[in-house]
Design goal:
Layout lengths: L4 E9 L16 H15 L9 E5 L1 H11 L5 H6 L8 H10 L13 H11 L4 H6 L3 H14 L12 H6 L6 H27 L3 E4 L8 H5 L19 H20 L15 H9 L4 E5 H8 L21 E3 L7 E5 L1 H10 L5 H18 L9 E7 L12 H12 L4 E3 L2 H7 L3 E3 L19 H27 L3 H21 L2 H6 L9 H18 L19 E3 L24 E4 L12 E8 L3 E8 L14 E7 L28 E6 L9 E6 L3 E5 L5 E4 L3 E6 L11 E9 L2 E6 L5 E3 L3
Parallel strand pairs: 1-2, 1-7, 1-8, 2-3, 4-6, 5-9
Antiparallel strand pairs: 10-11, 11-12, 12-13, 13-19, 14-15, 14-20, 15-16, 16-17, 18-19, 20-21, 20-22
Helix pairs in contact: 1-9, 2-9, 7-9, 15-16, 18-19, 19-21
């Protein structure tokens, strides 16, 4: 008889607070959009499968945002959707063109033919002025309507009245129809919490929670936790960390109980970041279980989980049991997720046919089951725990075929059973762990949230604000004499502390600095600093000047604009005494061990005269090798001109779905060269062709040299342009055609040609 294998799917939902303050509008629309595309439909799939049980993890800050949408708070995108397009100004229109095509190209945008046509029109417009004027007001209305409809799951087509008609319509949307789209979105949002509570009460799902604003608890509790290489510029003693960590946990448990009517038994630690003290905190507030990454178990027991060439575990036993730490006071069960499965679903299967991918995953589950048949234990748990909202954009039809096929295969297999995590730990005797290694689901450490220079500055800002908060709180309470004054003082302190809790969230530190880039880093930076500024506003105290300065790295932005013509000799030799590059623009790239680790260049000079464009690249000799594999160090210069109507997209490949705003433009020309520590291959110039293609062109007047630095001269004649033609451009550093860095990241640089 085949031993039954228990499977726990744990789908994690989280978005940070996108508000400037507790009552303000949302600056980004992602809670609303994921609510209508992912949160409810992921649950409603259970209507098709009577025997499937699922686990959902929902962060309290996300629930806050859901409730605020229900109360009528809106986001910037939504306000534009609901406005009369005749009232749009040029800034509104530019915002629409830059932000309302932010969908997966193949699976979302192309599903709406007219929307795809509008995207192509937007991509091939040459300049911002002509771009804005090339669209009619009706087209702006249609862009907003189609974008919003792309983010409504097709499962709801017949569930909400009027949606069927709107999904089939692609153009000529009226204001009333756009309002109807929002009314449907709002109804989906209103259905979220009651539907989750209903399925919970029926025993079909288990819902767990997170620390309230999604902080990295090990770093709050001990900012130097396993970060001994990264202590530079970090606070020596982080203010009130353990107290804040406990409050964030207890606030989350209280919030959950208020909404869903029961205390959650499980808590998903933010980013699955764990430490011994973190588990002691969970155990102290009676959290029954948490889910961690297999890498943490591997480090804790000193055993690598070997896999065969297909990714199957050689020995899955240790990963398929629950654990407790070997101390009486640690009562929290630890389950460990198979990260290979999570990576397959999150990043691997999206480009495959849904049924094929589901069958492949099913076979891998069966392989694990077969290897557990001789285990002395009666119960085993395969845990697939992962982000349940972002990956489905890469799947056709929002993952419908994949998930339906997978759930069906499992439901029809009597030897497999999907379980609620709490039900499993109630029947399974846990093994003991002698220790727990500190770390996260990424690289078994905390480097995505601390250690990089910009991230460390953010931690210092947070700590200084917390120290000032304590001083201001004590001073305010000391001045309060009457009961009314004391009540007002306590309300001020409570409100200010909430702002600190928001700023402790993981998301700000994730996007700061290297290596992540959201495409909206400026907004994340603003929100983080604004929440800290709100602390001082609550006490009517002066705001420190440094909080008014963007903290995000200024990498890629010129510290000096081009100031006049230059005509340097192209020899690759630094001759500062001649001042050949004095009037050039200059982009400085910070030179520190962290910033320079992956960068092949340290600085870029740029300028022009009446006949040529000039570029000079300072090479990072510490990074560039002597290898003959030149494709490791590639530089692409992308140029556009209002006098060249044909534009093509950047050819370098992005590592993620997050595209730098600069790269969303179309370009007229590409100059690409590759180099190593000593040599430079001849630059290749290409010109844009219709259909988004590129054609290599023969150049007769360009020059290049590489000795101390790399210098290029690009002739207007070779580009087919007149003298002194204004151009816009950006520079892309790549490896094997894969983007490493973009300079600048948000707007193109200009050379006026005069």
């Amino acid at each position: 008889m085949t031993k039954k294998l228990n499977i726990a799917f744990v789908w994690h939902f989280h978005q940070p607070s996108y508000q400037e303050n507790a009552k303000g509008d949302f600056l980004m629309p992602w809670v609303r959009l994921h609510a209508t595309k992912d949160y409810l439909d992921m649950l409603l799939r259970l209507e098709d499968f009577k025997n499937i049980k699922l686990n959902f993890n929902i962060s309290p800050v996300l629930l806050d945002s859901v409730e605020k949408y229900m109360q009528g708070i809106k986001d910037i995108h939504l306000k534009l959707l609901l406005c009369d397009v005749e009232e749009l100004d040029r800034d509104d229109k530019l915002f629409i063109l830059e932000n309302f095509f932010d969908v997966n190209y193949s699976n979302m945008l192309l599903s709406r033919k007219y929307f795809a046509e509008l995207y192509e029109k937007r991509t091939h417009s040459a300049s911002k002025t002509s771009l804005i004027d090339s669209f009619t007001n009706q087209e702006y209305a249609d862009i907003m309507a189609n974008f919003t409809l792309c983010w409504i799951d097709k499962r709801f087509r017949y569930r909400y009245e009027g949606l069927d008609y709107l999904l089939d319509k692609e153009k000529d949307f009226t204001l009333d129809e756009r309002k109807k789209i929002y009314e449907i979105q709002l109804q989906i949002i209103r259905d979220l919490i009651p539907t989750y509570k209903k399925f919970q009460d029926e025993g079909r799902i288990e819902i767990s929670t997170n620390p309230y604003y999604h902080p990295i608890l090990p770093l709050l509790i001990n900012i130097n936790e396993d970060n001994y290489p990264y202590l530079e510029n970090l606070p020596k003693n982080f203010q009130g960390g353990l107290k804040d960590a406990k409050e964030q946990v207890e606030k989350a448990l209280d919030k959950f109980e208020k909404i869903f009517g029961r205390r959650p038994r499980g808590m998903w630690l933010s980013e699955q970041c764990v430490s011994k003290k973190t588990l002691e905190l969970l155990s102290g507030v009676d959290v029954d279980w948490t889910v961690l990454d297999e890498g943490i178990l591997s480090s804790s027991i000193g055993k690598d989980f070997s896999r065969d060439f297909e990714g199957n575990l050689e020995d899955p036993f240790a990963l398929c049991v629950n654990y407790k730490l070997k101390k009486d006071k640690n009562r929290t069960n630890l389950i460990f997720a198979d990260s290979f499965f999570a990576n397959l679903v999150g990043f691997g299967y999206g480009s495959y046919d849904g049924e094929v991918a589901a069958n492949d995953l099913y076979e891998k589950i069966k392989t694990i089951q077969n290897k557990l048949q001789n285990s002395p234990k009666d119960y085993h748990l395969l845990t697939i725990a992962m982000d349940g909202e972002n990956c489905w954009e890469s799947y056709q039809n929002d993952g419908e075929e994949f998930l339906s096929t997978l759930y069906s295969l499992i439901e029809q297999d009597d030897t497999l059973e999907t379980v609620l995590v709490s039900d499993f730990i109630d029947k399974s005797e846990p093994d003991e762990l002698n220790k727990i290694a500190s770390g996260s689901w990424i690289n078994r450490n905390f480097e995505l949230w601390i250690g990089e220079p910009t991230k460390n500055v953010a931690w210092r800002y947070l700590n200084q604000t917390k120290e000032d908060f304590e001083k201001m709180s004590k001073e305010l309470l000391s001045k309060a004499k009457t009961n009314i004054e004391k009540a007002q003082a306590n309300k001020t302190i409570f409100d200010a502390k909430e702002e600190i809790f928001v700023a402790e969230g993981s998301d700000w530190f994730w996007w700061y600095g290297e290596p992540n880039e959201s495409g909206s880093d400026i907004i994340f930076d603003y929100l983080f600093r604004e929440r800290l500024r709100n602390v001082y506003r609550a006490f009517y105290a002066p705001i420190p000047d440094y909080l008014n300065i963007p903290l995000i790295s200024m990498v890629g932005k010129p510290i000096k604009e081009a100031q006049g013509h230059i005509s340097p000799t192209i020899d690759g030799i630094i001759k500062e005494e001649y001042g050949e590059w004095d009037n050039a623009g200059y982009i400085f790239l910070p030179d520190s061990p962290t910033f320079s680790k992956m960068k092949s260049i340290k600085g870029i000079y740029y300028g022009s005269d009446s006949d040529n464009l000039y570029f000079r690249f300072e090479v990072n000799q510490q990074t560039v090798s002597k290898s003959n594999h030149f494709l490791k160090n590639q530089i692409h210069i992308y140029i556009r001109s209002a006098f060249q109507n044909t534009l093509s997209p950047v050819r370098a490949i992005s590592r993620t779905n997050n595209i730098f705003p600069t790269l969303k433009n179309g370009f007229s020309y590409e100059i690409m060269f590759a180099f190593n520590k000593d040599d430079l291959l001849p630059p290749i110039t290409s010109v844009a062709m219709p259909g988004g293609l590129w054609k290599m062109v023969l150049t007769k007047h360009d020059e290049y040299a590489y000795k101390d630095v790399i210098e290029l001269k690009i002739s207007y004649k070779d580009l087919g342009l007149e003298e002194n033609t204004p151009v816009e451009f950006c520079v892309v550093s790549a490896t094997n055609e894969i983007v490493n860095e973009v300079y600048p990241q948000d707007v193109l640089l200009s050379l006026n040609g005069s």
